[in-house]
Amino acid sequence: MHRREWVYGWLFLTPALVFLFAFTHYPAFNTILGSFFSTPKGRKPAEFIGLENYRDLVADEVFWKVLTNNFWFALGTIPISVALALLMALWVNGRLRGTTLSRVAFFAPTVLPLIAVANIWMFFYTPGFGLIDQFRSGLFGLPAINLLGNPDTVLGAVIVVAIWKEAGFFMIFYLAALQSIPPVLREAADIEGASSFYYLRRVLFPLLMPTTLFVSINAVINSFRLVDHIFVMTDGGPDNASSLLLFYIYEVAFKYWQTGYAATLTVVMLVLLSILAIGQFFLFDRKVHYQ
Amino acid sequence: MTCFGKRYAMAAAAATVFTIGTASSALAVELEFYFPVAVGGAAADTIEELTEQYMAENPDVEIDAVYAGSYQETVTKALTAARGGKPPQLSVILSVDMFTLIDEDVIMPFDDLVETDEDQAWLESFYPAFMENSQTGGKTYGIPFQRSTPVLYWNKDAFAEAGLDPETPPATWEEMIEMGKKLVVKDDQGNVQRWGVRIPSSGFPYWLFQGLTTQNDVILANSDGNETSFDDPKVIESLQYLVDLSQKHEIMAPGIIEWGATPKAFFEGQTAMMWTSTGNLTNVRDNAPFDFGVGMLPANVRRGAPTGGGNFFIFNDADDEQKAAAFDFVQWITEPEQSATWTIATGYVAPRPDTWETTTMQAYTSDFPAALVARDQLEHAVAELSTHENQRVTTLFNDALAAAITGTKSPAEALAEAQQKADAILEDYR
């Protein structure tokens, strides 16, 4: 009986493994392979061209612009949405009146589809009669501002929408973690005379590290994944000012139909994400205390 | 009959009726039809009504009209479906994607479906301006359907307020600047409440820009679709004019201007003149809270405008019955009566001269002469920019225009780069 248990182990794993291989490993392998071939055109099949696609990639200035944009997008969304999520969770953690309403309000952006809210945000940003300009001209008498039509501000505008969308989702995880912290710690801190801020910094935050690790990995994935609103709001922005890597991959693959080059771009994204994920685990490893 | 026998008989009867019912629908030819909508108004509803009408008149054909989004989304959907092995049988797609569709080997020429002399006469009955983007290599690949040219809409009340004659739109580039300056309204703090003119530049700035280049007497690409002239001095001049409208003369808002919000901005009085498709005509007529005029785009060296809009394409991965049914549907929907319904519901230009001669259209245009502007402008119209790998070349041209409009690059610099990149792509097709 003892010897047969490993069979059951593998049998239980099989469904999950099948999905993992079919939808993750096999496509990834196919993509890496595809990046060494040219794009099939009409009747001409794909030919092996070695590193040609990668040479085109290095010479492509749109790719470098897009990568830079993604870097700023990540820098803008990850720290701010994680910090905001923690703040919102701390705020609604208590049992004050109105916390349920606040929790619903903070979580609402998560349940709304990004394409739908992107259309609403586009109205907010519309110069002249959009909501933001109505505030600006109505309350402050400022001129109309074209946030989406200006390459200097468009990336910022897009980042705001992304933060708005994901902060509520992360808040839920922090809220759950906060609820599981034993109240004795707070009482002990009060007896010892520790300030709220000291408690937050030296007790709460370290204990929340597992959640922070989880949330920041999600935030990193989202910084590559959340491109839906770009389709609706800017279509890559004035001269690729708001184009992100995944958006560019979509354009190359399904607008230009250059499947070989798109595979190359995808390989770059895979490598980047792998490095970031592994890096994060190593970075956090020493700081995370699991109970 | 016993109780059991009665139930058995009823069940048998029901089964027979059910089988006959499904058998007859199994004999119907099924067509999937993708269509885009690029303008405001009730275009999607009208397409669905027309499709229902056709099915009522032809009970053995079933057409599933699928709204496929914008032109860009529609061609992506159609090509994705084709690559996945399940293409639609017919689709309305942007006329300039013709070369791409041919290169991907998904469409067939209409000449192959022409059997009678009547069919041939029908094939030749469209305005030549619309056929420029529909034919190549001596064959017709697209049939004009929702075709347009951009036109100038102006707010007559605003004109009167500014001391201009409300019945006369600007006829030249200089007049547009002069009138634009008089039409700009600022509030006490110096913020602009109403701009003089609005030429949208989001999404596909090349289309309206082609108006400017045609008026400056220069063509952007050859008819074989393998050579562009983006860095021609006249093109640079045209782009400089566009950029100067906001930067030098301050009659247009700076930065990229949203296409979709343009009619609304016009209705809200945010702009006194706007350049947009004639396909927005019915939308403007229904929603403008003031008297408005519609005129041809102003001239520089000459009057000019690009044609635009979508053609019908029939996909070659369909069986003969489906192709015949699709061909019949395309012929029916371009008949004067249906074409008139479509034009009146949207403002798109009816692509055949005989449609304009029907009593419906005569009555409509005598009541609403603005509908004739786009058609009359056809005389000055040129083919829309179309090349091989159209999406790639158009996108890099759009990027260059956006860079110049936002001031990131100078017009000469941006266009020189665009020409270089376009050459690199189109070399293979020469």
Short description:
With 291 residues, chain A is mainly alpha-helical. Chain A has helices spanning 5-34, 52-59, 61-93, 99-111, 114-125, 131-139, 154-179, 183-192, 196-207, 209-225, 228-233, 245-255, 259-285.
How would you characterize the overall build of this protein?
The complex is a heterodimer of chains A (291) and B (430). Chain A contains 13 helices and no strands. Chain A has 291 residues and is an all-alpha fold. In chain A, α1 (5-34) crosses α13 and α2 (52-59) crosses α13 (259-285). The longest helix of chain A has 33 residues, at 61-93. Chain B is an alpha/beta fold and 430 residues long. Chain B has two domains: 29-148 and 308-382, Periplasmic binding protein-like II (D-Maltodextrin-Binding Protein, domain 2, 3-Layer(aba) Sandwich), CATH 3.40.190; 150-306 and 395-429, D-Maltodextrin-Binding Protein, domain 2, CATH 3.40.190.10. Chain B has 19 helices and 15 strands. In chain B, a hairpin with a 5-residue loop joins β9 (185-186) and β10 (192-198). In chain B, α2 (43-57) packs antiparallel against α14 (336-346) and α18 packs antiparallel against α19 (411-426). The longest helix of chain B is centred in the N-terminal third of the chain and has 25 residues, at 3-27. Chain B is globular. The chains are: A mainly alpha (291), B alpha/beta (430). The A-B interface holds A 41-43, 126-129, 137, 141-144, 146, 148-151, 234-235, 238-240, 251, 254-258 and B 72, 76, 79-80, 100, 103-105, 189-192, 201-203, 253-258, 261, 264-265, 268, 270, 389, 391-392, 395, 399-400, 402-403, 405-406, 408.
What is the CATH topology classification name of the largest domain in chain A? Answer: MetI-like fold
> So what's the oligomer here?
heterodimer
The helix count of chain A comes to 13
Radius of gyration of chain B: 25 Å
For the structure shown, list the relevant keywords.
heterodimer; A: mainly alpha; MetI-like fold; 2 domains; 0% strand; flat; B: 430 residues; alpha/beta; D-Maltodextrin-Binding Protein, domain 2; five-stranded mixed beta sheet; 19 helices; 15 strands
